[in-house]
Amino acid sequence: MTSWGYSISRPRSIDIDRNDMSYSKELLREYPELQTCIACGNCTAACTAANFTSFSLRKVHTLVRRGEYQGMAEELEKCMLCGKCRLACPRGINTRQIVLTIKKHLANRSR
Amino acid sequence: MEHFRLFVLPFYAGAIFLLITLLFKYIYWFVGLSREQKRLFWRSLPTRATWKSILEIINESLLHRKIWRTNPLLGYMHTSFALGWFLLITVGWIETYVYFKGEGVPLYVDIFFSYYVHPIFERAFNFSLIKDALLLLILIGVGLALFKRIRSRVMGMKRTTKHMLGDRIALTALWLIFPARLLAESLTSAEVWRFGGYVWTLSENTQLIPPGIGCGSFLTGSLGQWLANFLPARIIEAQHIELGAWWIYSIALGVFFIALPFSRYMHIFTEMPLIFLRNAGLRASEKETTYDRFQIDACSRCGICIDPCQLQSGADIQGVQAVYFLRDRRYGRLTDAVADNCLMCGRCQQACPVGIEQNTLRLNSRAKRAYPDAPNRYAYIQGKDPSTGEGKVGYFAGCMTLLTPRILLAMEQIFAAAHETVWWADKNGGVCCGRPLKLAGEVDAARKMMNFNKELFQKHGITTLVTSCPICLKVFKEDYQLEGIEVLHHSEYIQRLLAEGRLHLHAGSETFTYHDPCELGRGGGIYDAPREVIAALGILKEPAETREHALCCGSSIANTAIDDEGQRRISGQVATALAATGATSIVTACPLCKKGIAREATIPVYDLAEIVARAI
Amino acid sequence: MTGRVIIIGGGVAGMQTAITLDELGFKPVLIEKEESLGGKLCRWDRLFPTMTPAHEVLDDLRNRLGSTSTEVHTATTVSGIEEEGRGVTLTDGRHLEAEAVVVASGFDIFPAERKEEYGYGLYDNVYTTVDVERMFREGGVRMANGQTPKTVAFLHCVGSRDEKVNQRHCSRVCCITGVKQAIEVKQQIPDAEIFSFYMDMRMFGPGYEELYRQAQQQYNIHFIRGRISEASPTIDHRIHIKAEDTLIGRPLRMSVDMLILAVGMQAGASNEAFSQNRHIELYPSGFLRPLNQFAGNVRSSSPRLFYAGTVTAPKNIGESINEGIAAAYQVARTLNSKRP
């Protein structure tokens, strides 16, 4: 396994009081449909990248929604953007756009 | 300078400004071209491409033949402005030349000829008649343009472009130019009618015109005569109205010229260098170049691209169509919301009378806006080989096909029936072809996918690559550079098997309708192969809009912005159009189209491979 | 006054409506499109959560119906309902008159073929919960080659809560059906490993949660929280499935001998035609919308048009039977008030 120098499971609890929820709020304002996610994991199940990695879009966007941004942009780099998850999503969430928008935002944020 | 009149100044100011601006822009853009692009251009001079360009300029910039095909009234409107004005200027030049052979007269005499010269004794050639006829031609065009604002449907357009301030200024000036000219020329004629005048005013050898004759022809002459009788003599004699009209004409010209480079009328001139560059072989690419500027500024914002766009007709999404995308990009106010909201189905490109590469421009805008690629991205695929089997023929299912296993199974049956040994690139999940990344603008990341798959193809020594996904097909053909490997869509492969007698099918009497996938049809030019295969199985009923004009299923991965409901509505639009053929089932040749249409269809939807496998 | 009341649909709700109407002194006319009465229940083996044989419920209803004066028309299909509930038109063109109409035409089973990615009808050993009931009735769960499966996966929510097949609603009863069948498979094949892929377990009825607990503790059913995205055949004719174990947050792949799809309930195909009647409204899901969801569950906006059972929403057997009784009483109230 390649070491990316970060882990998506940070060794602490998710502290919503302390987390910066501003982007989470912005994301959900822009894509309220993301809030309809029933966490079925169909996106991850269908994921082309998940054949090679442990990439879970569901987990990443859930963490972002909880204000946990660290390492998320790098994690989303694994996505091949093939769109299979969008075709599979039972809630009709525009998953590809979610990937792109989170990635773009987090990249700007770290600059 | 005794004949100089102040009213010519606005025209001069405008014309000089326009000339400088145009030269600056075109030179700046040309200099910005890559060495290869410049080389292509220089090499094209003078070749057949040059003549082709000249012919094309006559056909499209003057005659607007493509717009005539869209709608004759719309065509007339565009031709009247372009050809009418062009001829009016040309006839003016000839007239000036005839009257002032060899005598160097200032430009303003040429432009405001009717003010200075009142030719009435033309024997050999009646310039006034021609000019009046041309003016009438244009004025009818202006009338139609006004009418189009109110009732665009008559002109074959359900929706027209919403314009911005610069356009409105230029548009108002343009519409004013010709009525102002009519009025100015008529008032001059009225004065000559009432009080007489000179044939021309520059030469020593002037001929006197007695009152009661006037000048001009059936339009300006007649109107002049009427004005001479209608207006009080005092007013005509004072010349205020006449000069005022010439002022308005000159100001309208000046304003139009100054507004032109900032407005949609930039297309008038820009289409010409574009045609030369395009015929020299220049094309937009996945990264922005200054050649794009020629294309973008050549957009006249005629709005012909709006009606074919299913985002507006199917999903009620406005303001993102090609015309608005090009506008926003031109003025540097492009947003992700506009850049991303496009199915890249190519229907607008098909309709565009200027032939602007909408899809590629949209794509390189996205590439520019994309998140930069990390160098170690996709390190996880290095050294992986998810393929199975061995054979000279490779089959690439594509990501989506794994969600439509009927296609996969049908292909297995077809290969087996044709006794083909097949190398399966991604039956158990492979690496994406890279086109979805590319369409989202992540062109560098896409290259990594492409390199991976290309190496895999080469490693397994395949000579033919078959795919049932038109998205994969397009990228294999256009970006992979697979030397020694023939890339075939499964429709072409099946057609070939049938032609070679390697596959025998039981023909039936079932009626099918066929949906052209965008990436396969408009994107890849493959229309006949699937139709021939269907014809071998049953009866094909074409939908109303088909082949180059086929509808998009709405599921296109090129649109990252559209929501599920929008996709569903467009799918419904297509499903309805296909069901209207009365066919018993729908056939398509793309897993995404199949899924999208099946969601809304009331009759079964099959991939081409499925109906073939069924008939083996 | 003829007292004739037409009941469209001879499933449990329709049969119960007829029985009660007869008790109340009316003349029920029961119209069933199939050859025999009983509806979907005919295809069931045992019922959750008590494992009561389905035929016990059916036999009881049939016997009670048999002792009434109900006029039964089987193999008869209704094409339209008269505007004010004064009769129905049949597909053969005949017209039947009545004083009221009760629509108890039920639901359709979601056609699992529409979720192509699960390979139903495409691969051996992909079945639906309806197929499994048939297998139980025919002697037990067997693979296509006749052997008993050693690993079985159930997948919940097939054709429910899925925008991609335009089925947004929850079908309610599939959760408990999946749990019941998992137990039954385990009872039949004690050494089988059973995996149940779910999103939410909606144990809404009495004894359901207890059955779920029993499945976990007593029958060692493995519940994995995640939806299967696709199934594909392996070389040795097993089924390879992909999911995410969402509680862990990692992709999960496994091979099973048999995949059973817990298919949902979708709106009856005839609802669309019935809704030509201006008193009959459809929900976006395609089920019929009753007057209100509280005191008007079996009523429409017309005083002579009533509903019973799953024609208005997914329901279990008990609820459907209760609605049959409720509809009959509502009919009686209307018609009695109009008597001299």
Q: Which helices and strands, and how do they pair?
A:
The complex is a heterotrimer of chains A (111), B (616) and C (340).
Chain A: H1 22-30, H2 42-46, H3 57-65, H4 72-76, H5 84-88, H6 95-110
Chain B: H1 8-32, H2 35-43, H3 48-62, H4 65-70, H5 72-99, H6 107-111, H7 113-116, H8 127-150, H9 165-195, E1 197-198, E2 208-209, H10 220-230, H11 233-238, H12 240-259, H13 267-279, H14 291-297, H15 310-315, H16 322-330, H17 336-340, H18 347-351, H19 358-369, E3 393-396, H20 405-417, E4 422-424, H21 435-439, H22 443-459, E5 464-467, H23 470-479, E6 486-489, H24 490-499, E7 511-514, H25 528-535, E8 539-541, H26 564-579, E9 585-588, H27 591-600, E10 605-607, H28 608-614
Parallel strand pairs in B: 3-4, 3-5, 5-6, 7-8, 7-9, 9-10
Antiparallel strand pairs in B: 1-2
Chain C: E1 4-8, H1 12-23, E2 27-31, E3 46-47, E4 52-53, H2 54-66, E5 71-73, E6 78-81, E7 87-90, E8 95-97, E9 100-103, E10 107-109, E11 126-128, H3 129-137, E12 151-158, H4 173-188, E13 193-198, H5 208-217, E14 222-225, E15 230-233, E16 239-245, E17 250-256, E18 258-263, E19 265-267, H6 271-274, E20 281-282, E21 288-289, E22 305-307, H7 317-338
Parallel strand pairs in C: 1-2, 1-9, 2-5, 9-22, 11-18, 12-13, 12-18, 13-14
Antiparallel strand pairs in C: 3-4, 6-7, 7-8, 10-19, 15-16, 16-17, 20-21
Helix pairs in contact in C: 1-2, 1-7, 4-5
Description of the structure:
The complex is a heterotrimer of chains A (about 110), B (about 625) and C (about 350). Chain A has about 110 residues and is mainly α. Chain A has a single domain, classed as Fumarate Reductase Iron-sulfur Protein, Chain B, domain 2. Chain A has six helices and no strands. Chain A has helices at about 20-30, 40-45, 55-65, 70-75, 85-90, 95-110. Chain B has 28 helices and ten strands. Chain B has a four-stranded parallel β-sheet. A four-stranded parallel β-sheet of chain B has the order 8-7-9-10, sandwiched between helices. A two-stranded antiparallel sheet of chain B has the order 1-2. In chain B, helix 23 links the parallel strand 5 (about 465) and strand 6 (about 485-490). The longest helix of chain B has about 30 residues, at about 165-195. Chain B is elongated. Chain B starts with 7 loop residues before the first helix and ends with a helix. A five-stranded parallel β-sheet of chain C has the order 5-2-1-9-22, covered by helices on one side. Chain C has about 350 residues and is an alpha/beta fold. The model of chain C has no long low-confidence stretch (mean pLDDT about 95). Helices cover about 25% and strands about 25% of the residues of chain C. Chains A and B meet through helix 5 and helix 6 of A and helix 26 of B.
